[in-house]
Amino acid sequence: xxxxxxxxxxxxxxxxxxxxxxxxxxxxxxxxxxxxxxxxxxxxxxxxxxxxxxxxxxxxxxxxxxxxxxxxxxxxxxxxxxxxxxxxxxxxxxxxxxxxxxxxxxxxxxxxxxxxxxxxxxxxxxxxxxxxxxxxxxxxxxxxxxxxxxxxxxxxxxxxxxxxxxxxxxxxxxxxxxxxxxxxxxxxxxxxxxxxxxxxxxxxxxxxxxxxxxxxxxxxxxxxxxxxxxxxxxxxxxxxxxxxxxxxxxxxxxxxxxxxxxxxxxxxxxxxxxxxxxxxxxxxxxxxxxxxxxxxxxxxxxxxxxxxxxxxxxxxxxxxxxxxxxxxxxxxxxxxxxxxxxxxxxxxxxxxxxxxxxxxxxxxxxxxxxxxxxxxxxxxxxxxxxxxxxxxxxxxxxxxxxxxxx
Amino acid sequence: xxxxxxxxxxxxxxxxxxxxxxxxxxxxxxxxxxxxxxxxxxxxxxxxxxxxxxxxxxxxxxxxxxxxxxxxxxxxxxxxxxxxxxxxxxxxxxxxxxxxxxxxxxxxxxxxxxxxxxxxxxxxxxxxxxxxxxxxxxxxxxxxxxxxxxxxxxxxxxxxxxxxxxxxxxxxxxxxxxxxxxxxxxxxxxxxxxxxxxxxxxxxxxxxxxxxxxxxxxxxxxxxxxxxxxxxxxxxxxxxxxxxxxxxxxxxxxxxxxxxxxxxxxxxxxxxxxxxxxxxxxx
Lengths: 406, 283
Description:
The structure holds two protein chains of two kinds.
Chain A: E1 2-13, H1 17-25, H2 30-35, E2 39-50, E3 54-58, H3 65-72, E4 80-85, E5 88-89, H4 95-104, E6 106-109, H5 121-125, H6 127-131, H7 136-149, H8 165-178, E7 183-187, H9 195-212, E8 215-220, H10 223-229, E9 232-237, E10 240-245, H11 247-252, H12 257-264, H13 268-271, H14 274-277, H15 291-301, E11 305-309, E12 315-320, H16 321-330, H17 352-361, E13 366-369, E14 375-379, H18 381-392
Helix pairs in contact in A: 7-8, 15-16
Chain B: H1 10-49, H2 52-67, H3 69-84, H4 88-118, H5 120-135, H6 138-149, H7 153-177, H8 181-189, H9 194-227, H10 235-246, H11 249-275
Helix pairs in contact in B: 1-4, 1-6, 2-3, 2-11, 3-11, 4-5, 4-7, 4-9, 4-10, 5-7, 6-7, 7-9, 8-9, 9-11, 10-11
């Protein structure tokens, strides 16, 4: 289902937009038009956003991505082109219908939060409902609900300036969620946060999105972020669309040299996940096995540890070579007492960067398990090094396996 | 040779215009004057009817709640001194004049300030007028005020309003314009009407700046009220004016100190009102 459809959208700033549009039509470039005192925000941009899709618009500063986003709720009035939302051309709305559109259908989260400092957290979250004249009790209840959703329960009566940056942006998010609009516009929403908090927020957005399936248009200048959260990415340069595609398509088939240069510097350890680097666990041990049996399996696999699973492939833990040796000398019957049950395990979506961190403190192979702790595969050091080495060369090895469930 | 250009009849023109206005609209201004003078007299009599100690206690209490115990103690001692110097009635008269002038100035200045902030065109008209109002020597306003409003307190307060309104207009406009752009965008993005944006975002956020303007208006009113004593406004200014005419420096200083005390009390209290609870006006 198509939620938003943008057709040939153009926005020029300046005293005589028609004049600048004529120059654009004549094929003049942005630099030429700038000399006439006009600025091209975006030129002839077309794309669509599916219902429940998270579309990332990505570009460097000055690429027109913010201008484009502000066209979608008509904070910027497009100079030409149309925007269809649920089949209606919103650029033709009169004042009344525009207000209604902004109140009920589309909401926005801002880069620098844009919270109202004179209002409490709850009153901030309730702002959108207040302008709709929702009764005070109901809007309070809905604001509290939205704040709970973003993990800010108990902060309702605080002032925005008492909150950290990450928490302030949660309020910004709650304000947008409280109106229950179908569409969420996020303008560099996480760019002002420090990296650790940013990662948290990205993950939270992903988990909120799994539950709510909103149509989200997310702007960022950070390609890693775009690859991390986007279902599809629109890459922009100088107000024009350079490429539209899924993260894999953009990484594997850059449309031109510009995109290629962009993609070159991607931190592959953020893009690759456990799923894409794991191998099959050829040999596994069972708790009932005797130590000699396990040792024999191991020499075939030439490793210093082995994963232990139940018959139904549920992960139990790991045994190490040293422990097995000792057990053989002591004449133990089975390995049940040797199993390291608190050995770390990975989720298939764990990024490579986190795996590398884990490996620093755990010298053995790492199991990848599903949500029921069934063993899916193993990640070993050689595989990690291999994946990183391949991604450094021109043809990315396995990023195509990047899961589509982001 | 430089040809002699005859002097432009500017003064004559202004006189003719003022005469015409006096002849044709003074019945309106006189009626207005009548109304205001009843208001002023009523307020003065009311306040003087109350025992001074009660009023002093009330002011000290207000100062304590608004600005802390230091200001409260200062107000208490200052006002007791004024009472002791037998300047109480004059102080009340001056205070009333300041109060009425400030109320009128804010009633005019606030909407004009909002207008100037929201419309560039209005701002282009209003700002030069403000320059004119503020730099024209205050005495000049007194001369035409008399034919329109008669001698006395009303003329004084009209001149005072002209002189004291500009800071309220300017700082209201400034306060509204200073609201960060992204907050305006946020208000728009959620579908606020212009009225909602003004009352829920722009004005509440302008309150601290706006109150600084009101504070300036009060201070200017106070200084003008003294000058206005020349056209019979009475009050502390009247005491100073008499002291000048009779060459009694002691009495002049007494009244001067009284004005300073009154100014400090008004200043400290209104400054705090602007700062501390500025936020709580979320409605």
